[in-house]
Amino acid sequence: MLLTITNTRSPATDLGWLLHKHPDKVQSFHLAFGQAHVFYPEATDERCTAALLLEVDPVGLARQRRNMGNELLAQYVNDRPYVASSFLSVAIAQVFGSALAGSCKDKPELAETPLPLVAKLSAVPCRRGGEAFLRELLEPLGYTVTAQRHPLDERFPEWGESPYFTVELSATVRLADLLSHLYVLIPVLDDEKHYWVGNDEVEKLLRHGDGWLAEHPEKEQIAARYLKRQGKLVKSALAHLATEDTDPNEVAAEHDLEEERLEARVSLHERRLSAVLSVLQASGSKRVLDLGCGEGKLLRLLASDPRFTEVIGVDVSARSLEIARTRLDRQRLPDNLKDRVKLLHGALTYRDARIENFDAAAVVEVIEHLDPPRLSAFERVLFGCTRPALIVLTTPNREYNVRFEGLPAGKFRHADHRFEWTRAEFASWCAGVCSTFGYKVEITPLGDVDAEVGAPSQMAVFTRV
Q: What does pTM read for this prediction?
């Protein structure tokens, strides 16, 4: 079983510091079920790849077991030495334990830095779901997924396809996050574990799922498979996820508030919403989408305007939708206005037939929260599938950040921003989208324009050709 991890940010050999494994050495580790070897097929400043080779000893495993009965042959002849399974998760925890914990004693800042990483698994069993389930697990975490399915036997194609895939994942992500995702999801895909699952497995799931599992759209499936469908354990894990003390949504809300405080001096938040609303009103649109609606600030403005006959808010955060619903209820709108508003739980990187054939869509301060590898999926869904006649999209102008007091140089305005574009970068992206999907665009500044760095934010109005 082979796992490789590649870093392409110079100096790429920083990967060795994070893994606590020197690129010039081959290191071997004894495990209860075999041997693990760590080596580097390549190690330059431009590109560095670390390989974890796992040798599972099926004979040794069989000899450790008691009462094998009629399953004797299966204990010796199986796929365990060759595919990613819970054996690999254990190897990751034991061999890359410090990296999995996000610890790097010599370069602590490096452990917190997202890196352009590519992980490749030579053989992954995708049982009970195949490639579709593989993508449902990994793509919501921001990975670009490449999967190559293998036949049962190349000599006999009529035997059909196997459940095994070679899988490659790429994203700009902390190494600790990548390893945590692999640690949890590999046995979920395999739908099996080689050891007894008890209460301590719930703690492992919660610890390694911290920061991402509670918001994952497949968290119920993940918990069920990881805990081998033991009902009490699954219920316990899901209950903990629902009542985590450090709610990710509360953290996100605090970051939103910090951004609003930063922009308050230029009154940007109110001016942004007012500008978007004015464009939608002037367009004559009746059926409007608020994509990435969050806690419903724009939704409330749309809901109170009878010119809009149907308003749909969509967000990936169920908690944000609950807050949006509460705030809409507090408006005490007449029933004929309130009934026009619906809230939908969904991700903007997946096609959703419920939001197609609308007049207009607003995407306000959303795109910069997407990982760059997911932008192509977002473009395809919004401009290619949802395809409203009008799209109003806003995003920060990175050049203006130097004018915000208290914002350190090089930092983004919001802790969850994955990027912030300059005016030229935004214009280039808009032009590419228009060329690909058949739109035209008009870009306008939002806020007072500084002669040197432009306005604090920027708005693109796309019209379908």
A: 0.52
